[in-house]
Specification:
The complex is a heterodimer of chains A (329) and B (162). With 329 residues, chain A is an alpha+beta fold. Chain A is built from 7 helices and 12 strands. The radius of gyration of chain A is 27 Å and the shape is globular. The N terminus and C terminus of chain A are likely disordered. Chain B has 162 residues and is mainly alpha-helical. Chain B has 7 helices and no strands. At the A-B interface, α1, α2, α3 and α4 of A face α1, α3, α4 and α5 of B.
């Protein structure tokens, strides 16, 4: 019975050594996860190993690029002509609008100079291409083909022709990861164009919509209202379209109104995106100043030190009424 | 000598190809149905050649590579693939001689278990619970399993690789 003897060992190969090894590797994985969650080591490691990772990304995006090229190559001539016609009409319309706006923009600039503010309607943008890479289902992130070598920094806003797409969260030497506005972890200060109400738009769980959970009960918000970036928070410049409200209702808590909006940018269709370079000036309370006074070891008593009021006057100008900015030419 | 080298490269080639397939994007509608390729290929090799090739250490390294590429959480896929490899190796001698449909069911169970692990890890990381469609991926993977198994097996016999 040589077979039975041989079979008995792998069939019930529940040796303690195997289990111990499993426990060891599981513990190692958990330690890695905790350390990464706390310190964000992954991105350091990714940056270091970028020389391997980036070519893999390019390789993985080849099928998507190929499909895109194929669809262009085999596209109907009539379809292309139609598309060309439509684009030309759009351009004409946009140029006409722009010409009308030019005078207004100039006037605006003069008035702003009089008011001595630094806002400007000029845009410093950088064109980037989206790399077709799947970063895992339900991740709501995308990769673009510009990175640290092109001067990309974390926190830069990314827009397309229709509105805000998201912001750069992590940078590799030749590519960068963009978190979309619909990511559940993303929050964006917005203003409602019609009423000037300021609120915050969060991403939503299903990643298709924006959620505005903290609108005051008495606020005037309607379906179809347009959302613009408010410029508060100092990340996104003021006046870019963000989305349009689709439904409004009382929040589950009953203390606020909750609205849902669809993003105006083509989040899953864009090939080319624009990276904004001029960040909004930080509008908000100034950073906490180091408390002046004697060093801590010479301070008389804790009760006396807390009695000194710390006066910090906000010196930033009050954000004015939102304007529907002309995003780009 | 050269045959051994070919089989070595074939083994690592399939693993690397699985990682690459993990990154290739699908059309937006099909995205939740995307199979978890590294797990499928790892399972194939675990059933095919057992702990001569697949060890827990290799599963761990593969998982860390996948994490590096995905950029989610370092160690997440390492944990999942380790558990997968461990179970597959332990029940290997039974799974191997199952008829194909039973094997497919076993693979489905393994992958659903894998999703549960992922859910637990995500809950600890404080991420939102995904929608119901998220559970479709193991079923698609299990449906693809017989085809992938037969294809890889056929290629292996054609290339005369052990």
């Amino acid at each position: 019975m040589p077979l039975a003897r041989e079979e008995s060992s792998p069939l019930f190969a529940g040796t303690a050594a195997g289990t111990l090894r499993l426990i060891f590797y599981l513990a190692m994985a958990m330690v890695l996860m905790v350390l990464d969650h706390r310190n964000g080591w992954l991105w350091l490691l990714r940056y270091k190993t970028a020389i391997v990772i980036e070519p893999v990304y390019r390789l993985a995006s080849l099928p998507a690029d190929g499909l895109h090229n194929l669809s262009v190559a085999f596209a109907d001539r009539r379809l292309l002509t139609e598309q060309n016609q439509r684009l030309r009409e759009d351009l004409l319309l946009a140029n006409a609008k722009l010409n009308r706006m030019a005078a207004v923009a100039e006037q605006n600039q003069r008035l702003k100079e009089l008011l001595d503010t630094q806002h400007s309607l000029e845009l410093h943008v950088q064109m980037a291409r989206v790399i077709g890479v799947d970063l895992g289902a339900y991740r709501y992130q995308m990769m673009i083909n510009l990175g640290a070598r092109d001067g990309v920094k974390a926190g830069q806003p990314v827009i397309d022709a229709h509105g805000v797409m998201g912001q750069v969260v992590d940078v590799l030497p030749n590519s960068a990861t963009v978190m979309l506005v619909t990511d559940p972890d993303h929050a964006l200060p917005v203003v409602i164009e019609r009423t000037g109400l300021r609120t915050v738009a969060y991403g939503s769980r299903n990643g298709e919509q924006l959620t505005l959970p903290t609108i005051p009960m008495a606020a005037d918000v309607r379906v179809g209202d347009k959302l613009l970036t408010s410029g508060l928070g100092g990340r996104f410049p003021q006046g870019f379209p963000v989305g349009e409200i689709r439904n409004v209702g009382p929040a589950p808590t009953g203390m606020f109104l909750e609205a849902h909006a669809v993003p105006s940018a083509d989040l899953d269709r864009s090939d080319e995106v624009l990276l904004l370079h001029d960040l909004a000036e930080p509008a908000g309370p100034p950073p906490p100043s180091s408390p002046a006074g004697p060093p801590a070891d010479q301070a008389p008593a804790p009760a006396a030190s807390t009695a000194i009021p710390r006066v910090t006057l906000p010196t930033t100008p009050k954000p004015g009424a939102p304007q529907s900015g002309v995003p780009q030419t | 000598m050269s045959r051994q080298r070919v089989s070595f490269w074939w083994f690592f080639g399939t693993l690397a190809f699985a990682l690459l397939l993990m990154l290739v994007p699908l059309p937006h509608v099909l995205e939740p149905f995307k199979p978890y390729w590294p797990a499928l290929v790892l399972l194939y090799w675990a059933l095919e050649s057992g702990d001569q090739r697949i060890t827990l250490g290799l599963a761990f390294v593969l998982g860390v590579c996948a994490d590096l590429l995905n950029g989610v959480l370092l160690g997440e896929q390492a944990l999942r693939l380790c558990v997968l490899a461990f179970i597959a190796l332990r029940f290997r001698s039974r799974l191997r001689f199952f008829p194909m449909w039973q094997q497919t069911l076993a693979v489905l169970a393994l992958l659903v278990n894998d999703r549960f692990l992922l859910l637990i890890v995500r809950a600890f990381a404080g991420e939102a619970t995904p929608s119901a469609l998220w559970w479709a991926s193991p079923f698609v993977s299990a449906l693809l399993w017989p085809f992938m198994f037969l294809l890889l097996d056929d290629l292996r016999t054609r290339l005369r690789i052990q």
